[in-house]
Design goal:
Layout (H helix, E strand, L loop, with lengths): L6 H8 L19 E5 L6 H9 L4 H14 L20 E7 L4 E8 L5 H11 L4 E3 H10 L10 H12 L28 E6 L5 E7 L20 E4 L3 E7 L1 H6 L2 H10 L4 H15 L16 E7 L4 E5 L4 E6 L2 E6 L1 E2 L3
Parallel strand pairs: 3-4, 10-13
Antiparallel strand pairs: 1-5, 1-11, 2-3, 2-6, 5-6, 7-8, 8-9, 9-10, 11-12
Helix pairs in contact: 2-3, 3-4, 8-9
The structure holds glycine.
Glycine binds next to strand 8.
């Protein structure tokens, strides 16, 4: 991992100003299970905790928690109803990681199966592999009896159609003449996703991330969500972390494993997440990804729980996240690097 920058050297290196919201304090729950998620996971966290209390392993509880969001046609960033790629096909990415066994499973570019997290769990438990992609992932899901269906809802199709009709000014193809510096509306399209991290009363950890990825992505594009260490990571001795937002930023920083590594070095979950967001900002250098103040022009969020059950989250810009701690399920502010 790169040498850790102090706040002073970070500011000097990046020539940008940063502010950190004080609203986010790490919080836990003495003795009981805890869970953290992106804000769209809030309605699921009570179930995640309840199932851990009933003895379900944290990774299974996390997968159970993302399922209602994968099934929800109104969430256009995950599962059924997710926005399609540039060809109009919905492709899903997901990964799971289990702390006690150190095993992981993932699927990428999976079509026609609305619950990729369940398929990722099968990859982890029923194969000696970690990641299956595309046609192979679909064949594997079929072999395990997952039902197939068209995941493109009318609402998502019409949204894609409007994007097509506006031409290519918001696509991801870069003109080599300008290296993408001009003429693109880079920050317009949604990157949703759900991550759930879970810790049971025994201190065991598990995590799951699932998404339909960047809306109207180039066909074949894979984000951070199915990549172990990028969109989700667990080290049962130290913590679980996950990411939502611009997947490319979490990939190039290995954001989830970096966050767990910061916890292993003694940082609290919120500070570990914030340090990773700082690293993303420090490593973002091309003009097309910076605003007029030299700050990243995209959102990225990290979520974490440490071995002791303390929970935290940080993001590039102000945002909220969901957690289940001693206060029960609630939304809280992330620690934001920039206003
Ligand atoms: N973070 C989700 C994605 O970029 O695909």
């Amino acid at each position: 991992m790169a040498r850790r920058l102090t706040r002073r050297s970070f500011l000097k290196a990046s020539a940008v100003t940063a502010t950190v919201s004080c609203a986010n304090v790490s919080t836990g729950r003495r003795g009981g299970p805890v869970a953290v998620s992106s804000r769209n996971g809030l309605p699921s966290l009570a179930l995640v905790v309840e199932r851990m209390e009933a003895g379900l392993p944290p990774v299974d509880a996390a997968v159970l928690g993302v399922e209602p969001v994968e099934n929800d046609p109104e969430d256009m960033s995950v599962g059924y109803g997710g926005l399609p790629d540039e060809t109009g096909v919905v492709t899903l990415d997901s990964c799971v990681m289990d702390g006690p066994s150190g095993l992981a499973g993932a699927v990428a570019a999976l079509e026609n199966i609305k619950n990729p997290a369940q398929v990722a769990l099968k990859v982890m438990r029923r194969t000696d592999h970690v990641l299956l992609v595309g046609e192979g992932a679909l064949r594997f899901a079929r072999a395990h009896g997952f039902p197939e269906q068209n995941l493109l809802t009318d609402r998502a199709r019409e949204s894609w159609l409007r994007w097509k009709e506006r031409g290519s000014q918001t696509d991801d193809w870069i003109d080599p003449a300008d290296n993408g510096e001009y003429g693109k509306e880079w920050i317009e399209r949604p990157t949703g996703t759900i991550h759930i991290g879970a810790r049971n009363a025994a201190g065991d950890l598990g995590g799951c991330t699932t998404t339909s990825g960047l809306a109207f992505k180039i066909r074949g594009r894979v984000g951070d969500s199915p990549l172990i260490g990028c969109g989700n990571y667990v080290d049962n001795d130290y913590g679980v972390a996950g990411s939502t937002g611009r997947g490319e930023a979490a990939i190039v920083t290995n954001g989830a494993s970096r966050t767990v590594q910061y916890m292993a070095l003694g940082k609290s979950p919120v500070d570990a997440c914030l340090e990773t967001v700082r690293d993303v900002a420090r490593m973002t250098r091309v003009p097309r990804l910076l605003d007029d103040k030299g700050r990243p022009n995209f959102q990225v969020n990290f979520y974490a729980i440490d071995k002791q059950g303390i929970v935290g989250s940080a993001s590039m810009r102000p945002s909220t996240y969901a957690r289940f701690t001693e206060n029960g399920p609630e939304l809280a502010d992330t620690a934001a690097l920039f206003d």
